[in-house]
Amino acid sequence: MNNEQNEMDEYRELRAEIAEENGGIVIEGTDSGENMAAAMFQPPAVTGPIVTIASRGIPQDDGGTEHGQPTVESHERLVPGAELRSDTNNYARRLRDFAAEHPDFDSIVGREDVLIPISVQRTVLRLPNGPAFAFYLGQHPEVAEDLSAMDPFDAAVAARGMARALENDEIPRDVSTYAEYRAAMNRHEVRRQAARRRNG
Q1: Where are the alpha helices (DSSP H) in 69-129?
Q2: Are residues 64 and 140 in the same domain?
């Protein structure tokens, strides 16, 4: 029993380290890390038939038949998985409360010039302060653009860190890019560690 308990403790420690390194994101499974991350950030599945209808032949003067272009009808639809539906429903509940306090939410978050990558969209759905972070990205399109330029997994980790800082009111008001945010957070961390050394 002791050996099993030690292995479980090691597993918990490793999992905690992974969560800390990745901004709270831990993806577990039997696949490789790359495959799991790719699966997490994939768009919803597309299901439904595509119907191709042949056109009638057109008789020609020389006795031959010319075939017309077929008609293609798509009856496909996006089908989100159960986890995504659950995340979306939870986000919608949080959004109702947030939007009641911020009547301009739709106009700021729904801007066409603010593109948010899928990995960050999925992360926003899971965040306890997801609507507030989406509102922040709408107000700071440069940050959203910086997240779009990142690797999807790195963008999701960065979004979780920024959302946590936003919730703790640690993001300075004058920050307008991700680089400025990182610089501000680095300064904050240096001050925090210096204070801990003085008090420790």
Answers
A1: 82-101, 105-109, 118-126
A2: no
Number of domains composing the chain? 2
The least confident of 32-46, 77-91, 180-194 is 32-46
- Judge if 153 and 125 occupy the same domain: yes
The per-residue pLDDT for 33 is: 53
**In terms of domains, do 87 and 150 share one?**
yes
Q: Is residue 28 assigned to a domain?
A: no
Q: Count CB neighbours of 130 within 10 A.
A: 21
What pLDDT, on a 0 to 100 scale, did the predictor assign at position 61?
A: 87
Structure tokens at 126: 């899971």
Average pLDDT, integer, range 125-143: 92
* pTM exceeds 0.85 for this model: no
Residues 68/56, Cβ–Cβ less than 8 Å? yes
Co-location of 97 and 189 in the same domain: yes
Residue 22 lies in a domain: no
Looking at every residue in the chain, the average pLDDT score rounds to 83
**Rounded to whole angstroms, how far apart are CA atoms 191 and 195?**
6
Summarised one tens digit per residue, pLDDT across range 64-89 is: 888 888 888 888 887 777 778 888 89
Rounded mean pLDDT, 168-186: 86
Whether 180 and 100 share a structural domain = yes
Structure tokens at 1: 């029993």
Residues 6+ apart with CB under 8 A from 14: none
What is d(CA 157, CA 21) in angstroms, rounded to the nearest whole number? 9
Q: Which amino acid, one-letter code, is at 166?
A: L
